[in-house]
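User: Hey, my collaborator sent me this sequence without any context and asked if I could get a structure. I don't really work with proteins. Can you help?
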Amino acid sequence: MALATKPFGTTGMEITSVGFGAWAIGGGDWAYAWGPQEDAQSVAAIRYAVEQGVNWIDTAAVYGLGHSEEVVAQALEGIPEGDRPYIFTKCGLVWDPDDRTAPARRTGTEIRREVDDSLRRLGVERIDLYQMHRPAEDGTPLEEYWQTLLDLKAQGKIRAAGLSNHDVSQLETAEKLGHVDTLQPPFSAIHRSAAAEIGWCAAHDTGVIVYSPMQAGLLTGAFSRERVEGLPQDDWRRKHPDFTTNLDANLALADALVPVAKRHGVQPAAVAVAWTLAWDGVTGAIVGARRPDQIDGWLAAADLELTAADLDEIAGAIRETGAGDGPVAPRA
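Assistant: No problem. I've predicted the 3D structure and written it out in structure-token form, which is a compact way to encode the shape of the chain:
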């Protein structure tokens, strides 16, 4: 199948408005796991997404402590070169192999080793987009790690260089050294504070791929308090405020997406994703799946255009439920 594509900033890549998110398929037994996963199902999910026309996959070295990248490589085996999706991955989160459950260090000093490790795990000669996962906390100046990414781009190890989870002031600092090709911020109808960064990107021809548009499943319409209580013990969501303190407001907002979905003949998950795509500056949304059938719930977002009335209705629901933070509509 073919899905519509659009320019990804100034990268030269044309991407579909939805991409496959490979966080959860990293498996269990690490600090931010989603519980145990079946690799065969993960591979099937990736291949199904590609068959449906999705032309990019977002992963990271830290997802499953290297395992997500390895699963992505398995899924790419046998796919003809011309049909392969773009591969985006990230650096800057370095883990302790002797303590898998310890949080990764946020460092900017090991990027050259990290990129070689990712190239090996992914089985590719060049990474299409390489992103600094989070600002370093080891004292490495932003200018230093951003210059490293720019150098990797000049050397041909990566096609484009981007930042993830960086604010406007950090984007400004990086832009002075070399163009920020892309930004990957968290963005959903629940967490909307990245609107400022998205606006900056729109003004600077920087492509934007947002993550967690369904807020880790909360906005799919499939969640309940009982389901949260039944999550695996090593699923990071069990302890997150979105799934504990703020759960009632978030579920109420998810319920409010149902009538919008019914009018369009789609699942609430597709509405949640399409809401993020309605913002000027957003190129695409990263949407996770661990089984092929989960993709059917959000794939319709690729060509779903919410009306002004839809956006007003969702804005009203956000205000009424008090869910999340940030501006409530693209034109608010």
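In plain terms: The domain at 14-321 is CATH 3.20.20.100 (TIM Barrel). You can pass these tokens on to your collaborator as they are.
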